[in-house]
Amino acid sequence: MKGNAGSVLIVEDDRNQREIVKTILVKEGYYVEDAETGGKAVELFKSGSFDLVLTDLKLPDMDGTEVLREVKAQNEPCHVIIVTAFGSIPSAVEATRLGAFHYLEKPLEKDQLLLVVQNAVNQVRLLRDNIMLKDQLLDKFQLENIVGDHGSMQELSRIVRKVAPTTSTALIYGESGTGKELFAKSIHYNSPRKGHPFFAINCAAIPETLLESELFGYEKGAFTGALTRHIGLFEQANRSTLFLDEIGDLTQAMQAKVLRAIQEKEIRRVGGKETFKLDVRIIAATNKKLEEEMAQGRFRQDLYYRLNVIAFTIPPLRERITDVPVLVEHFLRKLNDVHGKKKSVSTEALRLLMGYSWPGNVRQLESVLERAYIMGEGSVIEGEHMPEEIKHDQGEGLAHQAFRHQVDYLIDSRLTAAEYRLYLYLSSLDPGDARYPELVEPKKVIERLNINKDTFYTGIARLRELGLYDIKPRGGQGRGDPAMLPPRKHASEISD
Prior knowledge:
This protein is of the alpha/beta class. Helix content is 47%, strand content 12%.
């Protein structure tokens, strides 16, 4: 079993020296393997996983710097420490130039050895954690992880996929809670800038005087309390992405300063004289209609045109209510993972959720579901666990009643989450689209929805049974009109 302290590969042709160092490190909890030649060390490194390589400079078959080159060529998080009895400034400089973490001279002192090894291993572990977190971020903000099967969301995914690889400025419209920052992050983490951190600021949440300092930074002594230099977000986001949320709330004075930074691609810190050239991608968002703001003289026209290169609107949840079950499934899975439980949502609770208008959009849905999850003691979230506003605000009118009829039919049909997503996907396709035959190919659908083959064919059979999908005997595959549902049946009349 590997030691908890870290893993070390010792490369030393002197057997006594090798055993002494190995004994010291093993007693400190390190997992240690050893090799007497550089060639064997390279083989062990390629077949294993090490935090540190501790190699002698003079080896029988190759130089220690050659071992260093081979280790670095594998592009794995691992440090190399060079040890030699023939210490010299040129050899130390060369080893450092090639990427050695440290350079130790023989005879080795135990305390110094342990200190250097510990520092090297700790740094490698931090590097591994950093890589893991970056991978998790990249995975989290993949376009496939944007939840929503409604046609408008699929169109937004297509836009983001086209916009992400470019350097163009993007402007995102949407009500509060629709997920504007999520889309901004998706653009960043699917762009060439994904290796750099994503920076964001809410322009409406910070007073103008502080906002200028946050965006552009300031020099020491620029104002009372400026005891040290502060680097602003524009500088921090160099070669990365800066998300300006609620940009419609900027004052005219701040609009002019932001415009200059975007237009000239340079900034000057508050209280400073030097200008700094920057490469920052700007993504802005607002819940206001900027065209109306311009007409009222509250938003600069020139800034609007600088921002409005690529613009799109995230629809409110009430306009894509068919995404509610998909979002519920997503949030419920997260809550079950966090709490280690397996709760589900009842038919009545789902009816209530789909009948509500959601003024707070997806953010409100997530909060409501979390509250119901916590308040409900059983394994099923019932309608009684919903807040009062959800129970009482259940829309009226003929259009809403027709929609509720369709919703109730789908719920009473007891479709699984996968079958429901399959239905939404198929019903969003246009048979008149030239790509339609390709889009309904089983392989394409299975990949798009991330389901297995059995789930696909079982789902198709289920939808056909309910009259929600029709494969015509001629002209290939087709679909029935999703609005033309069979007469509503009672739940007990429909098989599970």
